[in-house]
Specification:
The structure is a homodimer.
Chain A (H helix, E strand, L loop, with lengths): L6 E5 L6 H11 L4 E2 L2 E3 L13 E3 L2 H9 L3 E7 L2 E6 H9 L4 E4 L2 H10 L4 E6 L3 H11 L4 H15 L7 E4 L3 H16 L20
Parallel strand pairs in A: 1-7, 1-8, 2-7, 3-4, 8-9
Antiparallel strand pairs in A: 3-6, 5-6
Helix pairs in contact in A: 1-7
Chain lengths: ~210, ~210
């Protein structure tokens, strides 16, 4: 299977701002498809079902697993998260890029079944900045916050499985950086055929 | 051997404008090192020895080959071209990117001895545009021009060995596109260590 368009996985520690980064990217690239994850977690006050996540019961999540309708799923901080398979496959088949904002475990599972996926790890500029962002978000109590920082350290160790890293310091810069990586991947010779080369098959090694 | 900085090879058919592209890139990135090739070809009226090429005799070129002072060399349109090894290695060791504007044969030889090299193939927007550019340059007679176009067709078949392709339509766009590819390659996890991760070794697979 070869995609000229991309399956892009964006991961990074809780609080790094990957959700905001992805939202801003999608505003600039409405031609891409943003996957909406299924989760058993309770919605945060500002979250909308069908936009941020599909909030479902554990029983319903279980039915998705059993009927193999999830591309990947994982337990994160005690809640289940999964990526519905059909809309991602439909987006890719219709020539769109599919963007998945998922955790590191999910990212590795996607890479396993779709080796052409592009995995991007979003880093904070510093550890201290990550702590500040989590505190500012104010959705965790101190012990939950500490736990998220410890999990972040574990996640950092998995960066070696990712293709690229990005620093999310200034949001607009990080969005532009993400665009550069997407551009570069779309110009990898192994992904594309250029009409200039229609005479022979340039992608078959001579 | 792992370079955090890059060895970038830029190739493409005669007349595609890779020289202009590379010059403009270097104006914007004087921190990079541009390799100056050795050649036995006669200088064109506007070319300066030590800036565009080192113009040398066949005997001197032969001495470079024998003393293994060339990273790669090849015969192109009856003339010899080669990349002096020492300045490229010095640039890389001092943390600079090294940019090589060389032909396809040379590019493949560099990739063989430096697998981390990033190979970029510059394409014209159309075949017709390539012919126009060669005619406009006016340095070849009609039969030489025809020969260059035939060689271009052969070169296109080697694009599969390259990492990226770029279309040189509008020069400033092509320069920006080259910058995007360089940015992306510098953010490949396999190339770098980020200070955030100094606690463990994130690049050793857990």
């Amino acid at each position: 299977m070869r995609f000229p368009n991309l399956l892009v996985v964006i991961s990074g520690p809780s609080g790094v701002g990957k959700g905001t980064l992805v939202s801003r990217y999608m505003e600039k690239h409405p031609e891409s498809y943003l996957s909406i994850s299924l989760t058993t977690r309770q919605p945060r006050p500002y979250e909308i079902c069908g936009k941020d996540y599909y909030f479902v019961s554990k029983a319903e999540f279980q039915r998705y697993i059993e009927s193999q309708r999830l591309l990947e799923w994982a337990e994160v901080f005690g809640d289940l998260y999964g990526t519905p398979r059909d809309p991602v496959e439909e987006a890719l088949q219709s020539g769109k890029d599919a963007i998945l904002e998922i955790d590191v475990q999910g990212g590795l599972r996607v890479k396993n079944c779709v080796p052409e996926a592009v995995l991007i790890f979003v880093l904070p500029p510093t550890r201290e900045e990550l702590r500040k962002r989590l505190m500012k978000r104010g959705t965790e109590n101190p012990s939950q916050l500490q736990h998220r920082l410890e999990v972040a350290e574990i996640e950092f160790k998995y960066i070696s499985y990712y293709d690229y890293y990005l620093i999310n310091d200034v949001l607009d810069v990080a969005v532009a950086d993400l665009e550069k990586i997407v551009f570069a991947e779309k110009h990898r010779v192994s992904r594309v055929r250029h009409p200039l080369l229609e005479g022979g098959d340039p992608l078959v090694r001579p």
